[in-house]
Amino acid sequence: MNDLQALKEQLIDAVEQHQDELIEFCSRLIQIPSVNPPGDTTEITAFIENYLSEVGITYEKYEAADKMFNLVASIGNDAGKELVYCGHTDVVPVGDLAKWDFDPFSGEVKDGWMLGRGASDMKAGLAGIIFATKLLKKLNIELPGKLTLAIVPDEETGGEFGVPWLLERKLVKGDGCLIAEPSSPLNPTIGQKGSYWFELEVRGEPGHGSLSPLAGRNAIVDAIRAIQEIRTLWDMEITIPEEVQPLIEVSKKYMREVEKDRLKYQEVLEKITVNIGTIEGGTKSNVIPDYCKVQVDCRLPFGVTQEEVTDILKNKLDALEIDYSIQRFGFKSVANFTPADNPVCQSIVENISFVTGQEAYGVMQWASSDARHFRQYDIPVLQYGPAYLPSIHGYNEKVRVEDIIRCAKVYITAAIDFLYQK
User: Fold this and answer.
1) In terms of Cα–Cα distance, which of 413, 412, 339, 401 is closest to 23?
2) Which fold has domain 3-192+335-420?
3) If you placed Cys at 322, which of 137, 222, 255, 341 could pair as Cys (CB 3.0 to 4.6 Å)?
């Protein structure tokens, strides 16, 4: 056993010995409502500040928008590489309380599960990276580089006051980054599809409903025709670039062999998905509607650009001879990935195997996250965190306690490997 392996074994034992602290910390994070919207992270940020201060970890605090706080904290030194561990403090709204079997802000541990809003997305992962950093400091582990925590708000609405705000101002840099977003136990996500959200507005001519379709021009009817064309984006054949084909294939393997309920979704990795999310139009049933607005969420695979999709949409809709406009909003990104052989990917994947004794490999996700921002700034990044995936953003959100502990072990050992790599 070499010195690094011995050190990692020591740190795994330390996580075991301090696991009650980790679980209590995670529970306390869940008990602090940090719902976005509105996105107020004042209370949870102050709680994390106190937790870091207990072992003398210094930090900088930035209020990017009203009551939206970023924390940047580091241990180690500037002599070597820098690894960033990132997590967001905000959570999605709880929805109808009557549909929960427990208090969404209880942070209760029951039958091996941590319960509450944010348990999987992503306060368990957030707790893990903060706990691992604090434990390294507490044990006086000498690092040949720097481990930085980037604790951010405003992720759940795709806002600009978290990760992009820090990166634009060069307040966070790094040679590699891990985001503790939910993932499967053995398969971090190293790539993601692009996002293309837009609102279609169709304009018509009003008139008395009793004269339709002979009078006026029905904006809703024209919008229905437009929707039919928009949905044909799914039918397009996309040529996947050669350099990402291995990632697509291993991701299909994951969907066949690991998350078997995802088998039927394999096509989404290579297709433009189209979700007609909302429709608003008209004023009364007896008035020919003069407007209709439709919000659409498309996810773009590798091999097609946003500009190409815009041109395709315009050609399809122009051919309908309707009065329309398209306005982009929300998530905007192209498909992006970090190569599996990048040091940060290797460090996480190898230490998942080291901790679990099982084969691990990176896969692609079909959604989007803050990872895209780091890649825009040439910071290699992947995502790995504890989660019960079916409960994310739903009622009765939860995560297994054993998964929280496992991920903390991976975080602390991967930091050692990455920072000691030449």
Assistant:
1) 401
2) Aminopeptidase (3.40.630)
3) 222
